[in-house]
Amino acid sequence: LGEAKNLLMIFIAALCSFSALHVFVIPSNFSPSGVDGISTIIYELTNINIGWFKLGINLPLMVIAWFVLKKRYVIYVSLFTVLDSLGVIFLEKIDFYTFVPSGLTSAEELAYRLISAIFSGVSIGVCTGIMLKLGASTGGVDIVASLISRKNPHIHIERIISIFCYTIIACSYFVYWDLTSVLLSVIQIFVFEWTAATLLKKDRY
Question: Residue 13: in which H helix or E strand, if any?
Fold first, then answer.
């Protein structure tokens, strides 16, 4: 029963993640942090669904992590990654609803993009909080940081993750050529971190 509940929570976490990416992030032209950010940047350059890039980046990391990190952790993260990636692909295939409509004035578009940054931050924060409560993570940068930290225990994982995330966001400027996109990414990170921290204050599932 316990594992069935955990699997359900992983599905809910993935649902929060891929719906936020499709509905809010992609139509708002800004890059989240982590692998989502890398995948979104590549999507902007190639127009290939970000789900494929998320799989392509995360699965090799999972193989490496299998030999280094706890098996339960890797299984949970791998399951989340597959559900999350396929979810983004599926929503694009069915042409699912996106929050930002066309034909907006500049002011209206900015308002929609700001709302998207806030609500995607909440959704991804809930996703991250759920996975951390399960003793796992959303993969990507977290896996890389964990692997680096094992080799260099004097370096805090949080610091490694922050460096990766803000580097990815800074690089996104040279894709969107829009400072507003960078600022929206920063807003999303603040909301996401606050939401995840709030969720983690509660008891574990």
Answer: helix 2-20
